[in-house]
Amino acid sequence: MSDTTTEPHAPVPDLTAWTCPAPLRDQSRVVMGHGGGGALSAELVQHLFAPAFGGEVLGQMGDAAALTLGGVRLAFSTDSYVVRPLFFPGGSIGDLAVNGTVNDLAMSGARAAYLSCGFILEEGVELSVVARVAEALGAAAREAGVEVATGDTKVVEAGHGDGIFINTAGIGLIPPGVDLRPQRVVPGDVVIVSGDVGVHGVAIMSVREGLEFGVEIESDCAALGGLVDAMLAVTPDLHVLRDPTRGGLAAALNEIAAAAGVGVVVQERNVPVPPAVANACAILGLDPLYVANEGKLVAFVPREHADAVLDAMRAHPLGADAQVIGEAVDAHPGMVVARTGLGGTRVVDLPIGEQLPRIC
């Protein structure tokens, strides 16, 4: 028997008005994920900026460019800082502006010598706030042993900024015999992380959103030049260093694996995640491997030097909690996998965007 009842037609949804919490890959406009240090950032650089700029040096795509000028090997880097809030437990945008650029240079083996500094100020920001940031920046530069040699200031109309943005560029000398780049990574290399991961991103989120996790989590923001010097004193034959900032440890490992054409296996239980960060990530639904750091590095070290390098790292205050977390392998080139505590294996993909935006 046929059903002769009729129902009113449901309204047709307007799919063009839908949004997605994760940025889509096919975008005609900039989305927050383009600044997250993940796949969207890589696509923006590789398919828009790199073809427009050209040049062999840019093709290195490292934290800093390695240059030869007048027979001298230099590292040169630039970065912009848009963190919100401007002040957070363990640091400020001023500390980040120095330490981030110093660390980018250190990942090339260079000790930073000079920085430039550009302030973009929003109309209406209190001069006392600008002074606090400038004082923090100057103190961080002195602690890192680097001089701010030149700078610039611009002001934008109220509502067209977020208080203070800072750009810093830095230059330093690369010691003879040092050649740090992902293309040198080979199967058998040992992967070492210098300490607890995920601390900076969770510290920013806790103050931004007013969250409390029982203990105050402070950013790990620090200049890593001294730690890198200690590692290179053991052997200049380190293969690659990377500071896992935006996109966290997962992004850094994926970038290295892809550039080197090797697989990476991480022992998840060996990755140092402090309990407060683990608990915060569990509450927020975050993976600590993808949360940003500002005072940590990951190193790929030839196996024959790994024990000595690890000892040197642990003897330095910024590497006291260093751990071996994995190795480079022949299998699954370009892919990072984690072996879980239960004996399973999961793929650690390059993030599309970023779990926590505006963290540096």
From TrEMBL:
Q: Where is the PurM-like C-terminal domain?
A: 187-332
Q: Which domain of life, per UniProt?
A: Bacteria
PurM-like N-terminal domain span: 62-174
The protein's matches in Pfam families, at most eight in alphabetical order, are given as:
AIRS (PF00586), AIRS_C (PF02769)
The family database entries (CDD domains) matched by this protein are listed as:
HypE (cd02197)
UniProt record similarity statement: Belongs to the HypE family.
Please identify the protein, giving its name as recorded: Hydrogenase expression/formation protein HypE
UniProt source species = Streptomyces albidochromogenes
Give the taxonomic lineage as stored in the record.
Bacteria, Bacillati, Actinomycetota, Actinomycetes, Kitasatosporales
Per UniProt, what is the name of the gene that codes for the protein in this document?
A: hypE
